Amino acid sequence: ASAAGAVEGTVERFGRIDILVNNAGIGAMGPLHEQSTETFRSVLDVHVMGTFWTMRAAIPHMRAQGHGRIVNTTSAVGAFSAPDFAFYSAAKAALIGLTRSTAQEHLDLDLRINAIAPVAQTALGKGFFDLNPMLDGTMFAVEHITPMATYLCHADCELSGAVLTA
Hints:
4 strands; 49% helix
């Protein structure tokens, strides 16, 4: 209801929805065998179901107006994995499939659905960077991601089903 409400509120206020960026996330770090089913479900709900719910609400509006841009935030960890990040990795990998499949469903319109798979030094990624102190944090500044996401939201973007990383 919250995801659909956010989309409907946008349409009510502005008369349309042109861009949707799904960027919610939570983490669960540790060995798989030490994690609970409830934690796994929570991670999947935020990453996968949240993205699904907002896309499902926005796409009919975008289809009706013949245009839209959706950018889903996955992660390089979803594409390549990392130890002690099984739940996060699984959820982010699911977003890659969700993005690519949904993009193929809407090739008949100017509706582009893509994903970004950043490696960024954020509060959520702190555990990863703490485990890998040899990485130069300046190379993983969030500011490196912004131009890529902005391009994927632009009306001139012709990519659809792409997963870009920075």
